[in-house]
Amino acid sequence: MVTATASSNIVSFSGENLNLINGRQQFRAKDPVSALTHFVGCICAILFTPVLLIHASSAGAGMTDLIALSVFMLSMISLYGASASYHCFLLEGEAGLRLKRLDHMMIFVLIAGTYTPICVCAMGRDGTVLLSVVWGLALAGMMFKLIWVTCPKWVSSIIYIAMGWVVVFAMPSLIPHVSTSTLVWLYTGGVIYTVGGIIYALKLIRFNNRNSMWGSHEIFHLFVMAGSICHFISIYGIFR
Hints:
By secondary structure, the chain is of the alpha+beta class. The chain contains eight helices and four strands. The protein folds into two domains: 30 residues, no CATH class; 206 residues.
């Protein structure tokens, strides 16, 4: 139990809930750890958006490059914002399903959004086909989630991981356009996302304590954040 007090507000964390007590009002989060971690991720993405854009602009990035970078950062903000909202609010029925659909759909948006600056800023015209394919897959994936958001976790993980590694087929076109460090960070992020997805799909991390705050889903969220950091560094390094 961790409790933080600020004036009359009390924030209480436990293994199963998060209560905010202010007067007679009480708020209980659906999944406090997942909500908190991705709320932090959303705030960080917002704060680092101008950092990336200013860096790229000072390195000579054109308007097309800046738009591509904005798509990347907006996709990250959208993913973490949707995830934090879904794991925060205890909604049942159709309202809960809508947030779940949004959460899952934004994963496709983040994957395609990450590809966008790689294809546009690094590969230029050579990245047109890859960019079109990835966004086409993202749209198909979002439609899939609209129809079957309750599909087994392993099905979702396979789709996300497969889409994320489509870049392998574009390696001959990508390598001449980026530095070794950019490639290393790009692939490191991909590996981290993949490991996180496997942990999530197979529930590889379990705890005997029913009230534990940490499980496979919470660990997966940390892997997602680590993967995003790697990809941010990779894309940041495109502009020198």
